[in-house]
Design brief:
10-stranded antiparallel sheet, Cupin_2, 0% helix, RmlC_Cupin_sf, Jelly Rolls
Length: 124
């Protein structure tokens, strides 16, 4: 499987910590919640191979980002673009710019406390 993320991309870097803008229970469900995050990557920032137990929708606010699902070609997203990554899909995303920050919203609907990412290092 060709994976074209930058060779140094085995660790998360340049991702500015972010608290959810919204995190609330989904009405009329037993244990579902919705969370919305405002995420910012410094120039060169990367979130290496990982997955989410729930589907995640990304919406780009500013800058340019590259998303790549394992086994698929990379996708370049710019302000106004959105992308759905299905639950359990191993993927990575990064900011290819050396000067501009990447800002995006991340929308997750999942079982309570189960939506955040799970790292998946490359296997030998």
């Amino acid at each position: 499987m060709a994976y074209t993320q930058p060779a140094f991309a085995q660790e998360k870097r340049g991702v500015i910590p972010h608290a959810p803008l919204l995190r609330t229970a989904v009405p009329d469900t037993a244990n579902q919640e919705v969370a919305v995050y405002h995420v910012e990557y410094e120039p060169g920032g990367i979130n290496p191979r990982h997955l989410h137990p729930a589907a995640v929708t990304f919406h780009i606010l500013s800058g340019t980002g590259i998303w790549q699902e394992e086994g698929e070609p990379p996708v370049t997203l710019r302000a106004g673009d959105s992308l759905l990554v299905p639950a359990g899909t191993i993927h990575a995303h990064w900011n290819p710019s050396s000067t501009e920050r990447l800002r995006f919203l991340e929308f997750i609907v999942a079982e309570k406390d189960k939506g955040r990412s799970i790292p998946k290092p490359l296997e030998d």
